[in-house]
Amino acid sequence: MTEQPGAVARAALALTDWTERWVPDAFIFALIATVLVIAAALTATPATLLQTIDAWGRGFWDLIPFTLQMALVIITGHVLATSPPMGRLIRAIASWPRSPRSAVALVAFFALASSWFNWGFSLVFSAVLAIEIARRVETVDYRALAAASMLGLGSIWAQGLSGSAALQMATPGALPPQIRDIVAHGGMVAGGVIPFRHTIFLWQSFVAVAVEIAVVVAVMYFATPPVGRGKTAADLGIDLSAAEGRTENVERRTTHPGSWLEHSPILSWFVVALGVVYLVRYFSQAAEPLNALNLNILNLAFLLLGFLLHGTPARLMRAVQEATPAVWGVILQFPFYAGIAGVITATHLNEQVASLFVRMSTPATFPPLVAVYSAVLGVFVPSGGSKWVIEAPYVIAAAHTMHVHLGWVVSAYDLGEALANLLQPFWMLPILGLFKLGARDVMGYTIVVFLALTPVVLILVTLLGMTLPYPL
After folding, report:
1. Domain assignment of residue 110, yes or no
2. Which of 92, 123, 95 is nearest to 110 (CA)?
3. Tag placement on the chain: N or C end, fewer CB within 10 Å?
């Protein structure tokens, strides 16, 4: 039977058609945002044009360490997901579902759960899992499977171990000094650093994650078309046999000493042993081990795990090489976001925006306002880390004025930031290539999830935020 889309699906496809025709690439939004911020600084602050330009130039390279850190999040996630042991695990999980609805719900669950640990890993792991399931459950709607594999980035990821804002707040050096000063608020928050126990390890954050998983999996289960009403991979003219075996690398045998070292596990084992000893000593020497988690430590741990799972340097190098094309957007765009942050803080534009937040909200309504604002801005600036650099100066300043728990403000930002990814296909694009689909093929499903999840998120950030004291 030919699928007859309902009203919501027709609206989603129409919206996707419009955005693909009229909305430019995400990099253009970074350039437009630069223009708007400079204009706002000139009209709303006493700064002159030359002072504003100087602020932009001074801030332009402030995010170089964070840019590399976020690129490594993507690369290490891809390395883990494409390792041979993960390939075997994926094939085992793919044998579980027997119906289209259970297949889509299973992919959605693993996408959400894995994104808490690493969003880069979640994207690749879930995509490979979805393709493997599509081979086995041939009647499943292929577009629903593809959409389900990306839902971790639209909900859970920002509240997990690779959540950009929480990592920036917990990692010294990940934010410009002027933002740390705003967070510190005259020494109230030591060093302007907010550790994980005040953000992603709050019990309130765990409750929000559990509720989101339940809601998203249920929505995708009921949104999946029954047999004969959806479009399978075959209906779309997609040959899945060509993708088979992606997760396995071919081992090349040679007698040359240099090549032998590349394909021997000896050096990999040495690096893993070296890293494990360092991590054990690092956490044993920390006063509070949970607070010792930061972006550098997580990236090191995932890289070591990549060494272990791939077994040889040759396999690891190939996996890293395959992952690097996905980081070009981060490398190109982050300096412009750093320049924007430099203008906002140096011209004190952040104080003007913070006062606007204060006038518009109360302590109870401030977290949901931050979530909504974060979601709206996220459609135009699709990067949680760089966007937090832009927002943090005035959002945190307003939180101090409103006497709202600073860690929960970060969590509210994260919850809203994730919602934007359901409407903005920027982070979907590298994975859509694996499915041989376009953004329009999956946006109908992600918009349905957005409509269901948004009111839930606003209720969660409001009610749970009332249980937390100021400042931490």
Report:
1. yes
2. 123
3. N
